[in-house]
Structure formats: structure tokens, C-alpha cells
Amino acid sequence: MKKHSVAIVMCAYNEAQGIAEFVAELAKTFEVHQPIFFVVDDCSTDETSSVLQELRDRHQVNVVVERNRVNLGHGPSTIRALLLGIESQSEYVISIDGDGQFVGLDVCAMYEVMLEKKVDVCEGVRRFRTDFAYRKVVTKFVRFLVKMKCGESPADANTPLRIYRSQRLELLLSGIRTNSLIPNLFLSAKSRRLKFVIEEFPVLSIPRRGGSTQGVTWGANKSIFPNKKFLKFCLAACKEWFKKENTI
Q1: 26, 69, 89, 229: least CB-packed within 10 angstroms?
Q2: 79 close to 183: Cβ distance less than 8 angstroms
């Protein structure tokens, strides 16, 4: 089988309990492709960086950890991870969150489809999500927002699992601010506006790996209703989306 250079990039915040297992699973699944991993640690307060360094040193996984100097948030950290993938000169860049809510075999199947069909972008469409109902409502709403900008409605506009041809990704990122709160939405819209060949691939969505299935991004929210932090983010994201300079 021909080996294609591939970079697997992710951002992570306080994922020490599950990220090493996730990266190790991906490394084994992609072993024939000899991937390089780039993890942007967004100033975690746990041992996220340490467990990844141990994975690299003790198990020879090719993982590079880049720690932000200050906490930037998910969007800017995602862009930094994508840029690291481009800078590695890999032919393909796989973008995925560090919370491990996907199965390695699904990600590899996406990559094989990418190679077979020679598409520009492959998006993982999440199935059987266990998020609260309000998160699913937001997902439907962002599909509408993307359609407003490009005329098409993605099946999963904000999916954190995407595979890009590196050259295409470089073009997509041009013009998107490095401090964007919602880069995945802009990437969804821009790739469609530019008429890139896009494959939407169904993948299983599983609970976050580690001790807590809720994660820490939006705080410890056990309610079926969104908390203030989440609502504040949504408001800021809408303001960014509708700014005139963000016409993509």
C-alpha cells in the first residue's frame, strides 16, 4: 500500500485522563501511514502535556506537543493546530478534538475514502450523539448559518472531525482570523463557496474519554439547559459570524 504523509492535529484542554489512550488508538490504526501528531495544549491545568510526552518517550508515538502561552480557547487553538499540520508539509491534515469522542477505525475509514475518491475535504458527520438537547438545537442552527453564507447546508456544519488536502486547507485558512471563535463554521462555508469536492462521512460519536463525559470547556454543567458561559460564547460567536469583514 502506498504511504501518504498525514498529520493528525488536535487541540486539548485538561484531557489528561483520556487523550493518551485516544492518540495511541489512532497511532495504531494509522500505523501503516506513519502519521505525525500535533497537539496544541491550551494551558491545561492537569497533566495533559505530561501524559503525551510519556506516550512519545515510552511508546515511540510520533507526537509533538505545543503549549499555548496563554489560554486561547478552542477556536484559536484549532487554527494553530491546523497551521502546524500545514507547516509539517504533510499531504493530508486530519483535524480532530482531543476529547476522544471518535473511534480510530472510523477516522481511518474516512482517510481511506479520502484517498480513494481524491476529494478535497472529508467531514465526519456525527451519529448517535449523547449531547444535551440544547447542543443539538445549536447544531441545527449553525447549519442554517452556514447556508446563509454559501447556499448549502452541511450535514454537520460544526463537526470537529475533518480531513483536508494540505494545499486546499492552506487556501481555506487564508482570510480566517487566527483568533476566530468558530473556525470550523467558516471552513465549512468557505469550502462550499469555493466549490471544493467534499465528502460527508457518517461516524460514531461516543462519550468523552476519561473520568467525566461532560468535559471542562463549558464548566460543570449537569443541567439540561445551557449555562451562562455557553450562552456568552454563542452570543460572541454570532457577533463574529455576522461581521461584515467575515464574508469569506
Answers
A1: 69
A2: yes
